[in-house]
Amino acid sequence: MASFNLLNEPWIRCMYIDGAVRLVSLRQLFKDAAKIRSIAGDIPQQDMPLLRLALAILYCVYGDQFEDDPSEKELRQLWLDMWMAREFDLKMVEEYLDQYESRFDLFDEERPFFQTTNLEYADKDPDSLGELIADVPKPDKMLFTMQSGEGLESISNAEAARWVVFLQAYDTAGIKSPVVGNTHVNKNKVYAPKGMVSTGWLGNIGGTYLNGSNLFETLMLNWVLYVPGGGDESAILLGRPDDFAPWERDEQTSNLIVQRDFRGVIDALTLQARRIRLVCDSDSRVSGCVICYGDCVTPYDQNQIEQMTAWKENSNLQKTLDRNTPPITALRHNANTNLWRSLAPILSYRIQTTDLRPGVIRWIDELQEKSDWHHSEHPLKSITLRSQGVTYGTQNSVYEAAIDDSLIICAMMCRHDFDGIQALLDIVDHTGRAVDALSDFVRNLQVSSGRQSTKNNQKPIDAMKNDVREAAYARMDQLFRVRIAGFTEDKDPEQYSSEWQDEVHRVLLRMGDEYLAQSPIQAFDTHVLESNSRQEPMNTGIAQLKFRSRLNACLGRFRVSQDEYKPNSKKEGDTDVVTN
Prior knowledge:
Radius of gyration: 27 Å
Shape: globular
């Protein structure tokens, strides 16, 4: 019988601070946490599930630290003591892991890790590895192609373990083949229960977490011990009596379970959304798998437990559920939008309403405001905000796009009372409206050259405008990343944002000049623009006047002499003009 114990065998790909990439066991992961730069999976989307696995172990290890229910002050002190020690209590980690060593074996006969023993399809053989590995080419189902697919008959146990953790987090929905013991079968097919999350849990949220300078800091920054502002025992996340990891539970089933709500943060981090069994060949390598639906939860009102996503009030779902108050659902990522364009729900704090920021942001806010770890003293001046996830197509049954973006921000951006947050969000908003002005300018140039904007010709015009928007955001991407990283608490928000808006203004004016230079000679003729049942004359002069007027309205007039603007003097990102 094959054996591969994840506590002792190297299987997690990590990038060390010295640049080396090594496979480590779970024990080694905690031992070397301060030496490891980050987890580095086969694809970036493996990183977050593996990080969450390590976090779940931390919650388990330290869950019995207090004899009575801990106070918020005690939990903050526990966190701060560990942060200042710069290492985990390895004796405690080892003693805990020793208790459950057999249950971290990928092929244990009774409790294989993240799997269901003896799981079998009711009427077919196990699936090929294409159902386990997201980036193996397969018809209409691949996330993206990194492997040939041909000849992929087996993989190592280490790689299989990484994909099992990924699958529990991100598996696609759709029709599943029934397994023996599953009672939720309809015409020899298994569907996700109506109203429940049909994908893996991470596929349902906009995964957001914080990166430190090493893995120890990253784990600590995302180790939220209580829900700030919760005000009662239910807000305490550490040591919940009914919150168990899969390896701590004795019972198991092949049946689908409608669980509805998370029992606690450990349950959320390790939800067994699928029943899985790995199949080995004669060489003890993984060659196939059995997969069906597992534990199912609702997609709403999980914000007290799930700490790694932003949230929104869902009025549409409120009507469907016929509730008096809107349910709160996770805000998912847009695969076509850079992280800096989506900062509002992550950083924006609303007074006298539910705090919908990610729990990890609220936790750093709480530590800076209430603990002895004052901002003027603590060593954490900046953090890296990282977003990860996948999007799905065709009723969530296929992978559509992969998401992985990161952004360096000042730690003060997590403070709800930092004036710089609103200044930053205003610039992003103003820039969006200014980019729309550029896209309309290019549309007007097209009309001036004889291409009419009519109802019958709207699709190609809209596609062209979208291309212009994306080109503008790409041109300004590095500028925004540098500016956001440099927006520290010592900067005057008004002055800093004014200089920033001037830079955006210059970039868009130059892009407008470039599009104008590409216009044909006929562009100087006058044509008629048809828009919203209105007609107006349009030529390049009118187009330029409207464009510059809208830029001034969105971004304000230049705060420096207009003589400093030289058309076409620079055509890329303009990052060298950033003023700190």
